[in-house]
Amino acid sequence: MEPILKCNNLGKNYGSIHAVDGISFEVAPGRIVGLLGPNGSGKTTLIKMINGLLKPTRGEVLINGNRPGVESKKIISYLPDSNYLDPDMTFQSSVSLFKDFYEDFEEERAYEMLSRLGIDPKARFKTLSKGNKEKMQLILTMSRQAKLYVLDEPIAGVDPATRDYILQTIIGNYNPQASIIISTHLISDVEKILDDVLFLKNGQIVLYNSADAVRDANGKSVDEVFREVFACSAN
Amino acid sequence: MAWNLDGSRPIYLQLVEEIRRRIVTGEYPPGSHIPSVRDFATQASVNPNTMQRALTELERTQLIENQRTNGRTVTEDAAMIERERRMIAEQELKACLIRMQKLGISPEELIEMIRESGKEKEN
Amino acid sequence: MFGKLIKHEFKNTWRYMLVINAAVVLLSLIGMLQMHLIKTSSSYFIQKMSTIYLVLYVVAIIALVVVTFFYLVGRFYKKMFTTEGYLMHTLPVTADQHIGSMLITDYVWWIEFSAVSMLCLFFCFFTEEVNWSEFSQVLTYVAGHVRITPEFVALILAMIISPAVMLLNVYCALALGQLFKTHRILGAVIMYILMYVVLSTISSNLLLGNVGGSSLMGKYFFTYEGGQGPEAFFDGMNSFLGSMGIYSFVSNLVVGAIYWFLTRFMIRNHLDIQ
After folding, report:
1. pLDDT number for residue B2
2. Which of C268, C271, C264 is nearest to C102 (CA)?
């Protein structure tokens, strides 16, 4: 089966800095992959290239066989790290926007998820708390029947109950024909829902394996392995 | 009920153990219906593929039956459940004996301690 | 997709435009009142207050126009080059569609608001003074003497597309500002000034300076054959304006296209939202 995501020697330079340094890997459909690495490891750069928000310096990234463009954007559902919605818009107007541009958007599902949170769909985003904004953006992202979901730090900066809610939503929307890439540095919260883990360090892949295999091989949790791999000395 | 999963061991193995335990204690009664992979994974907050792997393993040992159209059910084979129960109990006992030995308590002392605690419970 | 972009942009801007248009109309109505007061009141104090109002009124209108301009192009900047870009650039839409849809909505609003402001100013200051019958006589006379030549059409077209080219100019400056790592808006201003200088130089060289021995203006613009009187004057004006019109139209098209391509190039190849 064609991999949903394939990177061939993908690289991005900023001057002399190799943010992403010639990496190659594949993601098959139906996998939940954790993109793990410290800040500055190249995670966000990689994600931006997958989404067509950044042009690679070398190599290529293929989504379902296509380079980033209109076709790939139709099947990728992206949740960025920041607030990307116009603060004056409401949930209602965002839903109408998503419905207009994405054929795979499911309006009923979006409203159903929102109703369980008890937030007013007519409230403007600028009036909402940070946690509620994150939840809404997640709902919009997960209400699409996309082939590839890319979630950039979906649980950073929110309280534990919201984190649980977010992880439950991700699992609950799972579809064996779609894949999910979760980029995070909060590994212990997230590792139980990951199929595979990819460690990124200084723009290079240092590990790409199934999470259970990592646990088996090391007798440790992915979080603990991560700490070893990325240990900084305090001296 | 919360699933206490330890990140340092393969998750699917822990799921197998926990589900087995729940079957044996009767929390999942014989013949009862098992939720879909997705619902079950959401309950346990784990990856559905991992849950799938655990359920496949349980089907292999026949603790769970997969009737394609009706979904998965716990086995109705009471004898097998009983065997599992004894197996788990024996494992727990072995582990306990080893720990007690390390504390310097012999099996005979242990039996005496069990009798004492049994009497206390009655009072 | 393209129509949807336009629809959503109008949806997100009509409230602001309504308020600002209403403000202009309201200020103008008060202005008309003040004009009337100046004429009819005998109190020196009232005349003075009304005059002050009218001065402030003009300043306010100019300010509102400037603010609205920055509001409109500011939306382009926010949507394309700030965190809102995460949503915009992941929609299954091309860069051309983004540029085109924003250009159309900004153009419509800009024309609308400019027209409303100018009409309001006009009606505020001149309603009572204009002798409408004289005015229509002059209009008819001029209209009768204007020849609808291709050049004339070109001149009208040039006037129609020049606000669009101005918008594209700003878009392009904002896009080129992305070349800077920090202080991108400052960078955009610098690029705008640079483009202005380059364009003015080329333009004046073409029109007035020495391109192959003579200037465009000298060579092509004046085909006036001679003669006297108002007829001759109009002939001369017609030919000059006509040539000017063609030059304007062509140069606007060329320059506008260059701005568009540069903007699109930057969005496709040098997008880097921080």
Report:
1. 66
2. C264
Instruction: Specify the higher pLDDT residue, C197 or C240.
Output: C197
Contacts of C1 in chain A (CB under 8 A): 101
The reply to whether A118 touches chain B by the CB within 8 Å rule is no
Which of C114, C264, C255, C270 has its CA nearest to residue C196? Answer: C255
Closest CA in chain A for residue B43: A168
Q: Where does the pLDDT of residue C233 fall: very low under 50, low under 70, confident under 90, or very high at 90 and above? A: low
Query: Which CATH number does A5-229 carry?
Result: 3.40.50.300
What tokens does C173 get? 């400056």
Whether residue A33 contacts residue A191, with contact meaning beta carbons closer than 8 Å, is answered with no
* A198-213 residue pLDDT tens: 999 999 999 999 999 9
Indicate yes or no: CB of A86 within 8 angstroms of CB of C94. no
Q: Tell me which residues of chain B have a pLDDT lower than 70.
A: 1-2, 123
Question: CA C154, C159, C160, C166 torsion: positive or negative?
Answer: positive
Residues 6+ apart with CB under 8 A from C185: C77, C174, C177
With bands split at pLDDT 50, 70 and 90, how would you rate the model's confidence at A155? confident
ipTM of the complex: 0.90
SS3 per residue for chain C = CHHHHHHHHHHHHHHHHHHHHHHHHHHHHHHHHHHHHHHHCCCHHHHHHHHHHHHHHHHHHHHHHHHHHHHHHHHHHHHHHCCCHHHHCCCCCCHHHHHHHHHHHHHHHHHHHHHHHHHHHHHHHHCCCCCHHHHHHHHHHHHHHCCCCHHHHHHHHHHHHHHHHHHHHHHHHHHHHHHCCCCHHHHHHHHHHHHHHHHHHHHHHHHCCCECCECHHHHHHCCCCCCCHHHHHHHHHHHHHHHHHHHHHHHHHHHHHHHHHHHHHHHHHCCCCC
Class of domain B11-76: mainly alpha
**Number of A–B residue contacts, CB under 8 Å:** 60
In terms of residues, how long is chain B? 123
Output the DSSP codes for chain B. Answer: ------TTS-HHHHHHHHHHHHHHTTSS-TTPEEPPHHHHHHHHTS-HHHHHHHHHHHHHTTSEEEETTTEEEE---HHHHHHHHHHHHHHHHHHHHHHHHHTT--HHHHHHHHHHHHHHHH-
Chain A hits for B6, Cβ within 8 Å: 221
Task: Determine how many CB atoms are found less than 10 A away from the CB of residue A154.
Answer: 26
Share of chain C above pLDDT 90, in %: 51
Q: What whole-number distance in Å separates Cα of residue C203 and Cα of residue C7?
A: 37
Chain A residues in contact with B8 by the CB 8 A cut-off are: 215, 219-221, 224
Reported as a single tens digit per residue, the pLDDT across B53-65 is 999 999 998 888 8
What is the domain partition of chain B in residue ranges?
11-76, 79-122
Q: Do chains C and B touch (3 or more CB pairs under 8 A)?
A: no
Q: Estimate to the nearest angstrom the gap between the alpha carbon of A60 and the chain centroid.
A: 19
As a whole number, mean pLDDT of residues C60-78 equals: 95
| Residues counted in chain A | 235
